[in-house]
Write a structure and sequence with these properties.
heterotrimer; A alpha+beta (80); B alpha/beta (795); C mainly beta (125); B: alpha/beta; N-terminal domain of TfIIb; Rossmann fold; 7-stranded mixed β-sheet; 31 strands; 29% helix; globular; C: 125 residues; mainly beta; two-stranded antiparallel ribbon; 5 strands; disordered C terminus; binds iron/sulfur cluster
């Protein structure tokens, strides 16, 4: 059950960017931080390997998202 | 920590990391502080004399967050590791919460009424044998109240701050040079100088934010030169362009060597010196005093002549080239030089002398009075300047730069306090070392101090030669030690009466930092248990003395000396704790004190103006539009309103009453305890970045305690090898005064040269001050913690 | 005056200085997972990288050379770090700057493993 801190780079098209933000907000495993300009901090709390991959892929597939950077990977769980 | 908590923590960390990355990417735009119920206010950092300003975040009555104050000129949002954790000092598990009295050797809980009554009765038994010992951690109103109680109320001058162990020599240096205390320059000099010379000053460890401020210029590509004049390699040395390692005590010779070169090369600033300076020396070297006698230039020249680079190289161990480099820099009129120092120069058996000499070379070279050209002492305590020096909580001083020995100064204070003439005693009290020596000496053998009230400091750990000056109190049954503190300390261990105190933002306060900056804050959380404000304790004790009939507790009109009124003019009995907060007593005391600062042109800003700022540098002078303007460069016409137009530079408190500063000659003299066969090492003591003073606060913050959990002895690898000592080995360190078991650290944070050892003093369990020397500067009476002879062996 | 503009001062810290620091005890130490982890210093949390000063991790690391300090700034040498976590436990930064990351890909990890991301360069921009 890893926890990932991500920096999501949003599209420079503000309509697309807002749409992406809203979509991210609707996924329960994703927690949004405070957006600054084109960048949005996101924490992903995923159930496991497959789930994490799926989330990552989904984020990158959003039209309003240009890039996903992994800032921190938390592995202090005894078992993941 | 449960799995769930761990998980929440991880998520918080992950979000913080991601948010930080986002802020960085978004061009450093400020991340708006989280608004989830946190109320933000301001305060100066509780620790060092740098005087950073912090934002304090409070939620549900608790300090929950700290941030560097982005608008503070001192630190611009930056803090050091201690500052980031300053809120944690309030929440150590063993906070003192109730007054306690020692009965049959055990501290037992008593009520505040009893505690105040006992304290007052002890004082009443022999008011002339009572002493107050505080520190530069006193807020200005606290120091002022203590000062008024003892000097104005009890006609007794036995009041000292631990600043005597710290800044007293800077004071005597400033006074004997300029006639008035405290630096002329300020931190802005660090933004403007071309060369910064650190005189035995490990700034990155002790005043880290100040060092960041200076060094940041280098990261921006500015060409600046850092010279580390020191006796061991430190964190700061890493950043230095020139490291000049001198033999302890030989700083005196080095400063004289700079003067010698200026004169020999005919490169001294004749215009500056002729207009603004005069020369001076001690009349009798065996009995040096504060003012000395005038000498002429020829005499001065003759006396410094022997300090040639070649000769000083022999004394100091510095290569001739390095001494010449210093000469070159001071001789170059285009180079702007700032010198800073702290305990390296102040804790010195010839401390006043070395302070004078460093001022002297700046004056002689004209490197004074313009931005970037300044000799500036730094303080270790948050209000060493504001309280100890400006309020004058010293045995010879009165508020605002006045002296008890001067009839007109006593008269001014008596008048200001509405006291009968002659109330203030003309004889200075005991200075720190003497005060504690007398306290630790049986009454029958002349120990004329009987009761001491200690506030906001920890002499049981910070005094030198502790066996003699503190621990010897044990078993002296007629001696009574009253200690107000926030945690159990080495001092409360011997206390007879313990008073639990409010700390930092648990009370109102005003501090004054190293650059003459006065900073104010309000109480933001409640103190724990029954802990109360020190200023309340002082007033409550005074009131109890009044009730017991001490005549000094009344002014000329028969009113209590701490009479405060509300807006309607009715007296508020603030000594009753439940009425104490009806008015802002801090403000009332500050307002009462403020006019006393005008005499020496140290005009403090009004309380209401301070409230609105993250500190202002005095003199703060009212402008024609009613606003208040601070002063960055004293004695310089372009900035200091008290300099007469056309004078350029004017030392308007000159000791010779002619607007001149004094360039002193003081010789190099050997240290009284140089290493010898029996004790072959120099022992130096000091601080570490993570801990402040005796560690009573920082050791309660888990992150800081974890970072540096205990002290150690730094030793050169070759010395270690010869003594069969390995890294981390237990060793026994001994001086003529005692011995101590410590672990050795080779190639650690500091790297002493061969024949030198260094030990930090924050550790309460392994107290290095059991070993240090109480020999002190004859003028400032400040002891030398930086040098004594020691030996070391494997345990 | 100095010629130094206010805005430039502490450039490195702009933004960061305004970040509030929770005044809370540190997380309890977690037992080392025995060699399959590697310490990673996050520059944006590390005091030494952020314009303040600190050297605690390198002073206390039991593995000679595992933390290399240059110009006062630490980084971990992945070849020498044993993953013992000492540096993490002693780090006094307001937010612990040392993260222990898996050497090998582990289930559920988004992104790459440290071996793939060159951890010897703390992930500054
Ligand atoms: S300890 Fe000194 S340098 Fe550190 S934050 Fe406090 S005032 Fe600033
Ligand atoms: S995990 Fe252990 S070996 Fe690795 S850097 Fe940290 S302290 Fe050193
Ligand atoms: S202990 Fe933490 S803050 Fe200090 S240098 Fe190491 S990583 Fe940076």
């Amino acid at each position: 059950m890893p926890i990932n801190g991500l920096m999501v780079t949003l599209s420079s098209d503000s309509a697309l960017a807002s749409d992406a933000c809203e979509r991210i907000a609707r996924r329960p495993e994703l927690e949004r931080g405070e957006r600054q300009d084109r960048w949005l901090p996101v924490v992903a709390d995923t159930a496991g390997d497959g789930h994490a991959r799926e989330v990552h892929g989904w984020l990158e597939s959003l039209h309003g998202v240009d890039q996903v950077d992994v800032i921190l990977v938390g592995f202090d769980e005894p078992n993941s | 920590m449960s799995t769930l908590e761990r998980r929440t923590f991880l998520k918080t960390s992950a979000m913080a990391a991601a948010t930080a990355a986002v802020s960085q990417r978004a061009g450093g735009a400020a991340a708006a502080p989280a608004s989830d119920g946190i109320h933000w206010d301001k305060a100066p950092c509780r620790f060092c004399g740098t005087g950073c300003h912090v934002k304090v975040g409070v939620r549900d009555g608790k300090v929950v967050a700290i941030a560097g104050h982005p608008d503070a000129e001192v630190n611009k949002g930056l803090l050091c590791v201690k500052g980031y954790h300053v809120g944690g000092i309030l929440y150590g598990e063993d906070r003192l919460k109730h007054p306690m009295l020692r009965r049959n050797g055990v501290l037992e809980r008593i009520s505040w009424d009893e505690a105040i009554d006992i304290a007052a009765r002890k004082i009443m038994e022999a008011p002339e044998r009572f002493a107050i010992y505080g520190s530069g951690q006193w807020t200005i109103p606290e120091g002022y109240a203590a000062q008024k109680l003892i000097k104005g109320g009890l006609s007794n001058n036995h009041i000292e701050p631990n600043a005597r162990l710290c800044m007293a020599s800077a004071v005597t240096g400033f006074i004997s040079t300029y006639g008035v205390d405290e630096p002329a320059g300020c931190y802005d000099d660090l933004d403007a100088c071309d060369v910064l010379i650190l005189w035995g000053n490990n700034m990155s460890e002790m005043h880290p934010v100040l060092f960041s401020r200076f060094y940041d210029r280098k990261s921006r590509g500015e060409k600046i030169t850092l010279i580390d004049l020191g006796t061991r390699r430190t964190r700061t040395t890493e950043f230095a362009d020139h490291y000049m390692e001198f033999r302890p005590q030989s700083d005196l010779a080095i400063a004289n060597c700079i003067a010698q070169q200026l004169i020999e090369r005919d490169a001294w600033d004749k215009e500056f010196v002729e207009k603004h300076c005069a020369f001076r020396a001690d009349a009798d070297l065996t009995k040096p005093d504060l003012m000395g006698v005038a000498i002429d230039f020829e005499n001065y020249k003759q006396r410094v002549a022997e300090y040639t680079p070649e000769k000083v190289s022999e004394i100091s161990g510095l290569p001739v080239e390095q001494l010449r480099l210093l000469g070159d820099l001071f001789a170059d009129p285009k180079v702007k030089i700032t010198s800073t120092w702290c305990m390296g120069m102040n804790q010195h058996t010839r401390a006043t002398a070395i302070n004078r000499l460093v001022h002297g070379i700046h004056l002689l070279s004209g490197k004074f009075g313009s931005p970037g050209n300044a000799p500036t002492s730094l303080t270790g305590q948050p209000s060493a300047c504001g309280t100890a020096r400006e309020v004058g909580t010293l045995c010879h001083a009165l508020p605002g730069g006045r002296l008890v020995a001067k009839p007109e100064h006593r008269e001014q204070c008596e008048k200001h306090w509405n006291l009968p003439a002659g109330r203030i005693n003309a004889t200075p009290g005991h200075h720190t070392v003497l005060m504690w020596e007398k306290f630790c000496t049986p009454t029958a053998e002349g120990g004329d101090i009987r009761t001491i009230l200690v506030q906001v400091t920890n002499p049981g750990q910070s005094l030198p030669n502790l066996h003699k000056l503190f621990r010897a109190k044990k078993g002296l049954d007629d001696k009574f030690l009253i200690v107000s503190d926030v945690y159990p300390t080495a001092t409360t261990e011997l206390a007879d009466l313990v008073l639990p105190a409010a700390l930092w933002v648990e009370k109102n306060g005003v501090f004054g930092n190293s650059e003459r900056r006065t900073q104010q804050w309000f109480k933001q959380v409640e103190p724990p248990g029954e802990a109360r404000e020190d200023v309340w304790m002082t007033i409550a004790i005074a009131r109890r003395l009044y009730d017991l009939g001490h005549p000094g507790m009344k002014d000329k009109d028969g009113n209590f000396i701490f009479r405060f009124t509300d807006d309607a003019g009715n007296e508020v009995p603030v000594w009753e704790y439940d009425r104490f907060h009806e008015i802002n007593v801090d403000r009332a005391l500050y307002d009462d004190y403020r006019p006393l600062t005008f005499l020496k042109h140290k005009h403090l800003a009004p309380y209401d103006v301070l409230k609105e700022h993250t500190g202002l540098r005095w003199p703060v002078v009212e402008q024609s539009d009613g606003s208040f303007r601070e002063t960055r460069f004293r004695f310089s016409e372009f900035d200091d309103p008290f300099v007469k137009k056309g004078n350029g530079i004017e030392f308007y408190h000159s000791t010779t009453n002619d607007g001149r500063a004094q360039i002193w000659f003081c010789p190099y003299e050997a240290h009284p305890e140089e290493p010898d066969e029996e004790f072959p090492f120099w022992l130096c003591t000091g601080r570490v970045l993570e801990h402040w003073h005796t560690g009573t606060m920082t050791m309660r913050v888990p992150q800081l305690r974890g970072a540096v959990p205990n002290n150690y002895v730094e030793i050169h690898p070759d010395d270690a090898r010869e003594a069969g000592i390995g890294n981390g080995d237990k060793v026994v360190l001994a001086t003529r005064r005692g011995e101590l078991e410590l672990s050795a650290w080779i190639n650690g944070r500091g790297r002493p040269p061969r024949g030198s050892l260094f030990v930090p003093f924050f550790d309460q369990i392994r107290q290095i001050n059991l070993l240090t020397l109480d020999a002190h500067c004859p003028i400032s009476k400040e002891p030398d913690y930086k040098k004594c002879a020691a030996r070391i062996r494997k345990a | 005056m100095s010629g130094v503009s206010r805005r430039d001062m502490f450039r490195v810290l702009l933004g960061r200085g305004r970040e509030e620091v929770p005044q809370a005890p540190p997380a309890a130490p977690v037992a080392s997972s025995g060699g399959d982890e590697l310490a990673l210093i996050l520059d944006r949390f590390c005091l030494a990288w952020q314009g303040s000063f600190c050297s605690v991790c390198s002073e206390r690391c039991p593995e000679p050379g595992a933390i290399v300090v240059e110009q006062g700034k630490p980084r971990v040498d992945p070849g020498k770090c044993t993953g013992c976590r000492v540096c993490h436990d002693v780090c006094p930064a307001p937010r612990n700057a040392v993260f222990l990351v898996a050497r090998k890909a582990r289930g559920g990890m988004i992104g790459k493993t440290v071996d793939e991301t060159r951890p010897e360069e703390p992930d500054h921009e």
